Amino acid sequence: MPTIYWKPLELTTVHTGDDPVNLVSRLASNERWLQNFFTPQLFSTAIVSQTGASSSAQIGASSNTGSGSPLTLARFQVRGNAARHPVRVTMLALVNNSGTTGTLTVSHAGGSGTVNVTATSATAHAVTVTPTTGSAPLELTISGHTDDSNHVVLVACSARIAPADRTDGGAGLDGFAPLWGDLGNHPISTEWVSRGYNNQRALARDRVACLATLAHPDYSGTTRLAQWTNNSTNTTALGRMRVLPCDNVNRAGVISLYAFVASSVTAKIQIVIGGGQQYSLNVTASGWHHQDIDLPAEGASVTIYGQCDSGSAGDFALITAQVFRKA
Question: Is there a cis peptide before residue 137, judged by omega within 30 degrees of 0?
C-alpha cells in the first residue's frame, strides 16, 4: 500500500507577489498523487475448487499441458482503464513436483506476460501486462503449462492498474488532463480550476472498483466439478460471495458473469442479492453476461443459481462472477 501524500487545501494561506500559490500547488500535487496511486482492485480471489480430506481434494486450478496447448485456468473482466494503463497481476502459484517448471501466462487486450513457477509451496509471482486494443469491459485470462507431465497450480490472484505518473500532455482517453505541467507564474484560468474538479470525476469513472470476485477453475466441461455445474431443470446454487459495506449510500452496480453452456443446453442464471433483489438471465451460449444491480450501503450477500431449461447433454457451469461499482 503506497504512502498517502494527500495534503489538505489551506484556503487561508494563499501567497501574493512572485511566491507560489500554496493552494494551487497543493491541488496539482494531490491530483498527481491520485493519478499515480488511485488504483482500486480489478479482481482479487482464491480459485475455488473441490474441498475435503479425500485424495481427490484440490487447491486452485491446475494444468499439465505442454507449451503448445496451454490450459486456461481463470478469466476475469477488467472495466474502465480507457487510457490503457498497464495492469499489474499478482498470482500465488506452485508446482506439484520438485524439478518441474510451470509457466503462467497473463493475456489481456493484446498484451501478455509470463512467469515461471518452480516452488512446490505457494509462492507469489507478479507480471505487468499493457493492453493495446479494444474497449472496456475487456477480458483478462491466466493460462498455464509445464515442461513435463506434472502440474502447475494457480491458487489465487489479484490485479490493479500499475502506477502511472503523467504530468503533461493534455487530456488522455480517460479524461484526465494533468494540472502539474501547467504550474507557473501566470494567471489562473477558470478552465484550470474546473479541470481540478473534472479530473477527479474522470479518475473515479475510469478506475472502476471490483468489490467482490468468485472464480472457479476454467476447465473443459468433462472435468468441472458438481459444486458449480448443473445439468438438470432443478435450480442449483452455483456460487456465493459477500459484498462488504463500502459506501454511505446505496450505489448503482453491475455483476459480470462468465458461464459455460454446452451446445445442446439452454440455461438460466438467477441472481439473488440479500433477501430482496432478484434478477434472471437467459444463457444460450458460453461467454460473459452482465446485469445492472443496486449495491446496498450496508453490503449484501450475492448468491448465483443456475438451471437448464432444455437440452439433456452437457453441463451449464458458472466460471467467474464479479461485482463492480458502476462507472
Answer: yes
Q: Are strands 87-95 and 152-161 parallel, antiparallel or unpaired?
A: antiparallel
pTM of the model: 0.86
Residue 27 grid cell: 491541488
Q: Which CATH architecture is the domain 215-325 placed in? A: Sandwich (2.60)
Ordered alpha helix ranges (H), the chain? 22-37, 190-206
Which is it for the CA torsion 26, 31, 34, 37, positive or negative?
negative
For 66, the grid coordinates are 505442454
Summarised one tens digit per residue, pLDDT across range 103-161 is: 999 999 999 999 999 999 999 999 999 999 998 899 999 999 998 989 999 999 999 99
Work out whether the CA dihedral 167, 170, 175, 178 comes out positive or negative. Answer: positive
Chain segment 223-272, per-residue pLDDT in tens: 556 667 777 888 888 899 999 988 888 999 999 999 988 887 888 999 99
**Per CATH, domain 43-161 is 2.30.30:** no
What are the grid coordinates assigned to 153, written together? 497450480
- CA 257 to each of CA 26, 44, 306: distance values in angstroms, whole numbers, following the listed order: 42, 15, 12
Give pLDDT tens digits for 63-81.
Answer: 999 999 999 999 999 999 9
Look up residue 126 and give its three cell numbers. Answer: 507478479
- Note the maximum CA span of the chain: 81
| Every domain range in the chain assigned CATH 2.60.120.260 | 215-325
Alpha-carbon distance 318 to 287, whole Å?
10
In terms of Cα–Cα distance, which of 97, 100, 104 is closest to 148?
100
**Closest residue by Cα to residue 27 from 195, 187, 186:** 195
